[in-house]
Amino acid sequence: KRLAVFVSGGGSNLKAIQAAFQAGAIRGDLAAVVSDRPGCGGWQFAESLQIPTIAFPGDDPANLPRTLDEVHGVDCVALAGFLKLIPVELVQHFRRAIINIHPGLLPAFGGKGLYGQRVHKAVVASGARFTGATVHFCDENYDTGPILSQSIVPVHPEDTPAQVAAKVLQTEHLLLPAAISALMDGRIAWRADGIPVLLEAR
Length: 202
Ligand code: GRF
Fold this sequence. Notes:
By secondary structure, this protein is an alpha/beta fold. It contains six helices and nine strands. Helix 1 runs parallel beside helix 6 and helix 5 crosses helix 6. The longest helix has 25 residues, at 161-185. The protein is globular. Residues 7, 9-13, 42, 80-81, 101, 103, 116, 168-169, 172 line the site of 5-O-phosphono-beta-D-ribofuranosylamine.
């Protein structure tokens, strides 16, 4: 199977994904990197490895799904630190094959406007004693698709948002590659009510 990764920033999740491919922890190919911020860290990392890079939304956004499918042979999509809403055409074309990682425990601390550092600021402000990361399948809204897996991180009431962010980011680098591996291997079952179940690698 072939994967496209969407990035908007430094690309630490992309680097963790690439390392997992390298180590054989994800089987398949990293086919392309898509970004709304050409030149960002993730974009540069892709170029350094000669991985094709695609600007988002590009001159014809409705064409992106076909380009990914027919030009790059993409089967699955992972949003890794991607901050834009993906077009409904992409959601429809890659049904049950687009996952996103959110640095909070959805359904809490998510949705439009709650991304990146803003999530951790909201968590600290709330006095919550736990936070974490969530991998979910994407639908046409922000952060509302069915949850696939989560990590959990303790929050000390004196933690700064930056300290919380660092703890969460560390768990993202484990959670997302494991979810991608399952997606690429077809190790995801679906409950009758539409909740996905990650089947462990044997
Ligand atoms: C980070 O805030 C991460 O928690 C979230 O996206 C942001 C950038 O991630 N998922 P990355 O370093 O670009 O992967």
